[in-house]
Amino acid sequence: MSEVNLPSEWIATELENIGDVVTGKTPSKNKPEYFGGDIPFIKPADVNDQGEITLTDEQITVLGAETVPLIPPGSIVVTCIGNLGRCGITTARSATNQQINSVLPSNKVDVKFLYYQLRTLKEWMLSESSATTVTIINKSKFSKAPIICPPIAEQKVIADKLDALLAQVEITKARLERIPEILKTFRQSVLAAAVSGKLTQEWREKPAEWIEMKLNDVADNVVDCPHSTPKWSALGKYCVKTTAFNPFYLDLSEQGFVSEEVFAERIKRLKPEPGDILYSREGTVGIACQIPSDTELCLGQRMVLIRAGSEINSKFLTIVLNSDKILSIVRQMTIGSTVPRVNMKDIRSYPIPVPTQNEQTEIIRRVEELFAFADRIEQRANVALDRVNNLTQSILAKAFRGELTTDWRAANPELISGENSAEALLAKIKAEREALKPAKKSSVRKKS
Hints:
Blueprint: E1 11-14, E2 19-23, E3 35-42, E4 52-53, E5 58-60, H1 62-65, E6 76-79, E7 87-90, E8 95-96, E9 100-105, H2 111-118, H3 122-128, H4 139-143, E10 146-149, H5 152-196, E11 211-214, H6 215-218, E12 219-224, E13 232-233, E14 237-240, E15 245-246, E16 249-250, E17 256-258, H7 260-266, E18 277-280, E19 288-290, E20 297-299, E21 303-308, H8 314-322, H9 324-334, H10 344-348, E22 351-354, H11 357-399, H12 406-411, H13 422-436
Helix pairs in contact: 2-5, 5-11
């Protein structure tokens, strides 16, 4: 940990001086009678800096608990293999697996204070971890973790302040995390208005009737992909997978390549051109995006190539295919399917609303304008969320530099000095632990 100027009333110590460290163990998986009881069995996936651990994915029986170390309520569990430094507090007698070290704090230490401080140790843990494929910090190293010990009264004040501040951070974070879902709903409402005519209702000079046609009738081509796995190459020409499909956007950053020979074979039915629509028809069904300009590619599997005809703008057709007008049909067709898929016959029969060319152009303009507005909001929300995520560590850092309790210390000198000092606290903990140690047997020399 980097050096910081601590308040003079605080003492720097090591974790083993204020609590016992216990490494977990997994009961034998060959003994089914060890599992399925009511004793929480904590694994790293159950620990996520959430404070109290109230739910675990797995539980063990009393028989299973007899074969592993048990930890009491109020213990602090810390992940020490893989994703280091995630913390939680037990609320019941529990056990953990071997990827977790648990701290059983002295009853003279505030548990919540120590929990928050342990959350700041990730950087130290990474620096001290073994240089293996999976990062590990063993019990002996973890026991030497640097810990800051204020007087107990100040520990409680810090813990209370952190509870309040971090609760506000979590509320803000939760609100920001909801924004993408809100914007997703907003974008779908824009598309619904676009394909129903409501988006351009006031734009029309006079009422104009829209006609509805089958996709097969408004498209020049609706072509299925080759029904074979591409022979991939390290270099060559793009061969797209449906993993590249996002509504309105084709992401080619992690796509594969095929040779000229394979490419020629896969474009025999129809060579994809910029502006053509790619449509996923199996797996994640119902995503439509256009091929970007200056892009040459062939089709992988589970997709359809659609080329708009003269009566419909390709961008407008992409809007329709991504709207709930078509997605609702897809959902009905794929209910209960193990691997969702839509048949070519059904795709060709999709009902496509067709306004005039001028109105299609206006719809495209308005959709793009509203989507750009939503994108700007989402970008700002993501920036704000990054700041909020950094705010937690910033608040914790201030707390353990003493900055949250500067005024409190000045107002309460009697609570941080003499018998109430940090030095006295550590001495009491040491004396208490010494008293709990089993007495050594004295050796008696026999008289000759």
